[in-house]
């Protein structure tokens, strides 16, 4: 098994490993994928509810919902780590 802290020059810390892992995950555009899933679900929910909002209202509500979903994901992650 390869030492995760020593796989690259000058990468002997947890912070360096975390940075490399984040860069790899970002290269898969995970943030964009999560945003797209939430945006599609949001648009579908608006259509089902037959709600008409102005463009600024739609953007503001999407932002608020996205924030709530991400905060909920963080809470779930925290509760799993505590178990």
Describe this structure in words.
The chain has 83 residues and is an all-alpha fold. The protein has one domain (14-82). The protein is built from three helices and no strands. The chain has helices at 14-27, 30-49, 55-82. α2 packs across α3 (55-82).
As a whole number of angstroms, the C-alpha radius of gyration is: 19 Å
Q: Number of helical runs? A: 3
Outline the low-pLDDT stretches. Answer: none
- Mean of residue pLDDT? 89
Main beta-sheet annotation: none
Structural domain tally: 1
Task: Give the percentage of residues in beta strands.
Answer: under 5%
Oligomer: single chain
Termini Cα gap: 28 Å
Helix/strand-derived class? mainly alpha
Strand-and-helix sequence, N→C? HHH
Short description:
The protein is mainly alpha-helical.
Characteristics of this structure?
single chain; 83 residues; mainly alpha
Layout of SSEs?
Layout: H1 14-27, H2 30-49, H3 55-82
Helix pairs in contact: 2-3
């Amino acid at each position: 098994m390869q030492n995760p802290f020593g796989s690259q020059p000058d990468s002997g810390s947890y912070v360096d490993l975390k940075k490399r892992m984040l860069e790899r995950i970002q290269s898969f555009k995970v943030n964009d994928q999560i945003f797209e899933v939430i945006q599609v679900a949001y648009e579908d929910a608006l259509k089902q509810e037959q709600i008409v909002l102005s463009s600024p209202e739609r953007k503001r509500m999407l932002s608020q919902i996205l924030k709530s979903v991400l905060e909920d994901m963080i809470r779930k992650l925290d509760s799993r780590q505590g178990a």
